[in-house]
Amino acid sequence: MARIEIFDTTLRDGEQSPGATMTLSEKLRMAHQLEALGVDIIEAGFPISSTDDFNAVQMIAKEVRRPVIAGLARATRLDIDRAAEALENADRARLHTFLATSSIHLQHKLKISEQQCLDQAVEAVTYAKTLVDEVEFSPEDALRTDLPFLTRIVEAVIEAGASVVNIPDTVGYAHPAQIREVIGTLVAQAKGVENVVLSVHCHNDLGLAVANSLAAIETGARQVECTVNGIGERAGNTALEEVVMALVVRNDAYPHVTGINTRELHRSSQLLSYLTGIHPQPNKAIVGKNAFAHEAGIHQDGVLKERTTYEIMTPELVGVPESQLVLGKHSGRNALNRRYRDLGYELTTEDLERSYKLFKLLADQKKAILDEDLISILHHGTMEDVPQRFKLHTLDVVCGKRPGEAQVRLLDEGVEGELSVGIGDGPLAAAFAAVDALIPFKTQLDDLAIQANTPGGDAVGEVNLRILVQGRTFTGRGASPDVVDGAVRAYLHAINKAAHASTLETKAMEQSNYLWGV
Ligand code: KIV
Ligand code: ZN
Question: Which domains are present in the chain?
Answer without folding.
Answer: 5-276 (3.20.20.70), 293-369 (no CATH), 390-496 (3.30.160.270)
